[in-house]
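Listing 4. Sequential folding, example run.
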Amino acid sequence: MIAIDLPWPANELRPNARPHWAAKARATKKARIAAAWACKIAGIRPNDPDIPQALRVTAVFAPPTAHARDDDNMLSACKAYFDGVADFIGVDDSKWSIAIRREAVVKGGSVRIELEAA
């Protein structure tokens, strides 16, 4: 299993947010770049042939506050993270099987993306 640790997604990336298109584009670009760097830090090589095409991906959410959050909204806010990881590892994310897990509240919040062979 490979674990990629990322910060809590920016507010502009939430599906119910209504930011200016340029603010959302900046946040999306920043999240994709952060995901690629997190992959590099996790020891993944770009376009690694050892990573299978079909992956089981678990998104582990540790929210910044105890507010109620919908699973689908948290997952949607991380789309740019998933795209950044998919670009870096060279695997089409349409072949992923995605699961969600919640953890305790953490100051600032965090998202961990766990990759396993399907």
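-- end of first protein; second protein begins --
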Amino acid sequence: MKSKEGNFVSDLWGYAPAAGHNPGNMLVGFKVEATDGGIGKIVRHSDQVGSAYIVVDTGVWIFGKDVLLPAGVIERVDRSEQKVYVSRTKDEIKDAPEFDKDKHLGDSDYHQRLGSYYQRPRG
């Protein structure tokens, strides 16, 4: 199954080589920038092959909720600015399936639902 951009769905759960993230490099504390502005700071991340992600604390932006973003939406990591740039808008992130801190680890249905949301055609 391919997305509009031609990437395979499984690519959604891995860091793109062009993003500039090397496994093992800490991202916790980095600010996250959507295509239309900041959304918060990374509070957790995973480099696990086939299941890589970041969890972002959105602060007051969406009432203090955390959001889980698959690593495949990361466009680039700027280590000098300590920022991660993602290829989604604030509204796309706000409207994503709710982050469930108990289900995101090892729940393939949750990953499937989140992956389907982020793989749908945009625009």
